[in-house]
């Protein structure tokens, strides 16, 4: 068949990962060649081993997933041909390598386990009936999976940034310094004002006390002169130092 399998051209989440990749569903490809009892398989092989792949003569000869490291190919995704009919409501894409359980269980039936390496891989669809293969598509172009980044491959030298990044970083640093200075200045002014206000109150209290203690004592007022003249012969008594007394 002239059909060539391919990864979807549209944007798709997880279209190609480190262990899986998506394929477009081959709709309306096998209708003229299939019976209702036929099945469609997907053959997966390393790109450099696709030329030596041989179609199995029956289902019993299908290469299993666990032989991929040694045989460099396997077959998976056994699906009734009706799922690929023009009117079938099948999903628009198929995912290769999406079944993690079958790898852990070590089952011998067709397994769609995670792909063990980035590849590249090539795939083709194979229509099989009760007596063996009936039709097949072309091999796909090589499909390379994503590579996981290991800690050992991390570059210890920091990546050099462009001049624009350096300028932006410098401006942000200057703005941060100015803002910090303004905040500290405001706090310092407030603290200084509080201390000055407290010192003024203390100084005023001290100044008032100082003036109070140095007020000179009130001097005694001079007593009015008074003279009481006694009968003649007894003398004169005065409340202040003796002064002249009338009649003496």
TrEMBL record:
It comes from the Eukaryota. The chain crosses the membrane at residues 164-189. GO terms for cellular component: membrane. Keywords: Membrane, Transmembrane, Transmembrane helix. The keyword Membrane applies. The keyword Signal does not apply. This is UPK3B protein. It comes from Sapayoa aenigma (broad-billed sapayoa). The lineage of its organism: Eukaryota, Metazoa, Chordata, Craniata, Vertebrata.
């Amino acid at each position: 068949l002239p059909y060539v399998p391919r990864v979807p051209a549209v944007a798709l989440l997880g279209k190609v990962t480190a262990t899986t990749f998506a394929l477009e569903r081959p709709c309306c490809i096998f209708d003229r060649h299939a019976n209702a009892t036929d099945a469609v398989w997907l053959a997966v092989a390393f790109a450099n081993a696709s030329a030596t792949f041989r179609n199995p003569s029956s289902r019993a000869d299908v290469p299993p997933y666990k032989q991929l490291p040694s045989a460099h190919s396997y077959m998976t995704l056994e699906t009734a041909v009706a799922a690929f009919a023009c009117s079938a409501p099948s999903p628009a894409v198929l995912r290769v390598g999406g079944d993690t359980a079958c790898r852990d269980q070590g089952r011998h039936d067709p397994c769609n386990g995670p792909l063990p390496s980035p590849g590249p891989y090539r795939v083709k669809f194979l229509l099989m009936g009760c007596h063996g293969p009936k039709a097949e598509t072309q091999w796909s172009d090589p499909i390379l999976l994503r590579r996981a980044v290991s800690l050992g491959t991390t570059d210890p030298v920091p990546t050099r940034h462009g001049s624009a990044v350096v300028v932006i970083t410098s401006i942000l640093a200057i703005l941060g310094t100015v803002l910090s200075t303004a905040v500290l200045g405001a706090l310092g002014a407030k603290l200084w004002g509080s201390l000055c206000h407290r010192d003024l109150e203390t100084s005023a209290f001290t100044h008032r006390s100082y003036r109070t203690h140095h007020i000179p004592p009130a001097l005694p007022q001079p007593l009015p002169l008074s003279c009481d003249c006694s009968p003649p012969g007894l003398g004169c008594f005065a409340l202040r130092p003796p002064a002249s007394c009338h009649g003496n």
